[in-house]
Write a structure and sequence with these properties.
Elements (H helix, E strand, L loop, with lengths): L5 E6 L5 E6 L3 E6 L4 E7 L5 E6 L5 E6 L4 E5 L4 E6 L6 E6 L4 E6 L3 E6 L4 E6 L4 E5 L2 E5 L8 E4 L1
Antiparallel strand pairs: 1-2, 2-3, 3-4, 5-6, 6-7, 7-8, 9-10, 10-11, 11-12, 13-14, 14-15
């Protein structure tokens, strides 16, 4: 149904919810047991590049080319808050233990969001944007011949 417009997906730890997003600037939330659409969440103003469920919960983090991250409560199908700080497109979003999210951006930063404290730690890269790999964060420069690569695990 969504074809090439889906850029990112996530499944809740209990397997009950599936979040899909991409070019339509909406997050489509499905009930995996019933196979039906529960809601379309609006709030971003661009391509949604990453969605990730907080572990053992139905809290969802999303990142977008509009430079914002967002927090959603999918038990209530409600927007919770926005995460501001990136100066360029967010390229990936991931969830960590507790109420923490991790985002990578074209501004060459990785940001660790501490949601309850409403703070963030900023890790600056060399010459590149970041891309997430399962369990790691990798940075590399795709548009020059610098041949530099950094990996955090």
């Amino acid at each position: 149904k969504f074809g090439p417009s889906v850029m990112t997906t996530a499944v809740s730890d209990d397997g009950n919810l599936i979040a899909m997003a991409g070019q339509a600037s909406k997050i489509h939330v499905y009930d995996s047991r019933a196979g039906k659409l529960l809601d379309d969440l609006s709030g971003h103003k661009g391509l949604i590049s990453g969605v990730a469920f907080r572990r053992n919960s139905h809290e969802l983090f999303s990142g977008c080319f509009d430079r914002t991250g967002k927090v959603w409560n999918l038990d209530e199908m409600a927007y919770v808050e926005s995460l501001f700080g990136h100066y360029s497109e967010i390229t990936s979003m991931d969830a960590m233990h507790g109420e923490r999210a991790l985002s990578c951006g074209m501004d060459r930063t990785v940001r660790l969001w501490k949601i309850p404290e409403e703070t963030q730690l900023v890790f600056r890269g060399h010459h590149a944007a970041y891309v997430f790999l399962p369990g790691n964060c990798i940075s590399g420069h795709a548009q020059s011949a610098c041949s530099a690569l950094s990996l955090w695990s």
